[in-house]
Specification:
44% helix, 160 residues, 2 domains, elongated, Nuclear Transport Factor 2, Chain: A, alpha+beta
Length: 160
């Protein structure tokens, strides 16, 4: 016996339509709830993770800096290797005079943040951080250094 909507009773047709509308309404509610949660992200949450790793590296506290790294980074690099990379990569910025944060963007469980390390002589070293949401916390999943520029070039961002 084949299913034919033409042979359904009026009550069956109404039930089928209401079920379809219910599924659509539930999907819309899930979508809106996800968008609200996404919009609720405050950029300071992302900035804090970067700042904590930066402060830990400035204080040679590499185990604490390592805790700010994502699980995938921790799987690829044991603490000793991470500390060596941090010493090399952060050597040019741990002496910076200040840190400023620029544009940020979130896409689902990932986010990017522009960070500008500014030395006392005005040299700016830009870096793009990639963060990933792990449970209830944001973790650093990667960083890409940009080309440094000298004082005098305009820069927009948020002071930290």
């Amino acid at each position: 016996m084949r299913f034919s909507p033409l042979r359904m009773s009026p009550r069956g047709k109404i039930t089928l339509v209401l079920c379809c509308l219910g599924v659509c309404a539930a999907a819309a509610w899930v979508h809106v709830a996800g968008a609200r949660r996404s919009a609720a992200l405050k950029p300071v949450e992302l900035f804090d993770v970067v700042r904590q790793q930066y402060d830990a590296c400035r204080g040679n506290d590499y185990p604490n800096a390592y805790r700010q790294a994502s699980a995938s980074i921790q799987q690829r690099f044991p603490l000793e290797r991470f500390a060596g990379m941090a010493r090399n990569d952060y050597a040019r910025v741990v002496k910076s005079g200040r840190v400023e944060f620029g544009a940020w963007q979130r896409q689902g469980r990932q986010a990017t943040v522009e960070v500008f390390y500014i030395s006392r002589d005005g040299t700016v070293l830009p870096c793009l951080y990639t963060l990933v949401r792990e449970g209830e916390a944001w973790k650093i999943d990667g960083m890409r250094w940009g080309r440094a520029w000298q004082n005098g070039q305009p820069m927009r961002g948020l002071r930290s």
